[in-house]
Amino acid sequence: MGNARADRARNTYTVAGSAYGISSKKPNTVVSTDFNILAEC
Fold it and tell me: Any idea which UniProt keywords this protein has (predicted)?
């Protein structure tokens, strides 16, 4: 789960947000991370 936002500026798309889930190393621990994806078309 988490959140995301998508934007477009001319030929560039940006998807950014945060996600959280369960740690594979410590299954009792919730972890979160931010992400940013840029795609030029």
Answer: Cell membrane, Lipoprotein, Membrane, Palmitate, Signal
Residue 31 dihedral angles phi and psi, to the nearest 5°: -120, 155
Give the integer Cα–Cα distance in Å for 38 and 8.
10
DSSP state of 38: E
Domain ranges of the chain: 2-40
**Encoded amino acid at 2, one letter:** G
- Model confidence, pTM: 0.69
Distance from C-alpha of 36 to C-alpha of 13, rounded to nearest angstrom: 11
Question: What average pLDDT does this structure show over 25-40?
Answer: 94
